[in-house]
């Protein structure tokens, strides 16, 4: 079944067409999401990102525009974007700021810093 036919079938609510897409692209999407989330995400995070891609396709198949590229590329971009969003969410939960707004961040008195710098700085 060609991509246009598959998308038309999904638009018509054909669950078998959706299952074909899932079988065809799951591994690819897992590898994309895994590459982004490997350091910060859990298996559950990765699973949710991949599932969200397929849910988006099922609920909004009209968003796919074949004139802009193939289905594989479109799904890949969506997967990458979802993984990046999850990555940002995970990093937001862990504040990495230096000083700033971190709860429990220790302030260093300016005098102690000035005293440890070489003369002339």
Describe the structure.
The protein has 121 residues and is mostly helical. It has helices at 3-11, 15-37, 43-59, 71-93, 110-116. Helix 2 (15-37) runs antiparallel to helix 3 (43-59) and helix 3 (43-59) crosses helix 4. The longest helix is centred in the first third of the chain and has 23 residues, at 15-37. Mean pLDDT is 83; it is low at 104-108.
In short:
By secondary structure, the protein is mainly alpha-helical.
Q: What structural class is derived from the secondary structure elements?
A: mainly alpha
Number of helices: 5
Question: So what's the overall shape?
Answer: elongated
Strand portion:
under 5%
| Extended strand count | 0
Mean pLDDT across all residues, rounded?
83
Radius of gyration (CA) equals: 23 Å
Tell me the helix content: 55-70%
Low-pLDDT runs of 5+ residues are: 104-108
Distance between the ends = 70 Å
The biggest sheet, with number of strands, parallel, antiparallel or mixed sense and barrel status, is: none
Helix-strand sequence: HHHHH
Which helices and strands appear, and what pairs or packs with what?
Blueprint: H1 3-11, H2 15-37, H3 43-59, H4 71-93, H5 110-116
Helix pairs in contact: 1-2, 2-3, 2-4, 3-4
Task: Give a quick set of tags describing it.
121 residues, 5 helices, elongated, 65% helix, mainly alpha
């Amino acid at each position: 079944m060609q991509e246009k036919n598959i998308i038309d079938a999904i638009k018509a609510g054909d669950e078998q067409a959706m299952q074909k897409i899932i079988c065809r692209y799951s591994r690819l999407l897992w590898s994309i999401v895994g590459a982004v989330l490997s350091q910060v995400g859990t298996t559950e995070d990765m699973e949710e990102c991949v599932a969200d891609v397929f849910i988006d396709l099922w609920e909004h198949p009209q968003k796919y525009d074949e004139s802009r590229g193939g289905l594989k590329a479109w799904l890949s971009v969506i997967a990458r974007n979802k993984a990046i969003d999850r990555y940002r969410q995970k990093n937001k939960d862990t504040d990495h700021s230096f000083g700033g707004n971190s709860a429990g961040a220790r302030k260093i008195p300016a005098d102690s810093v000035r005293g440890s710098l070489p003369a002339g700085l």
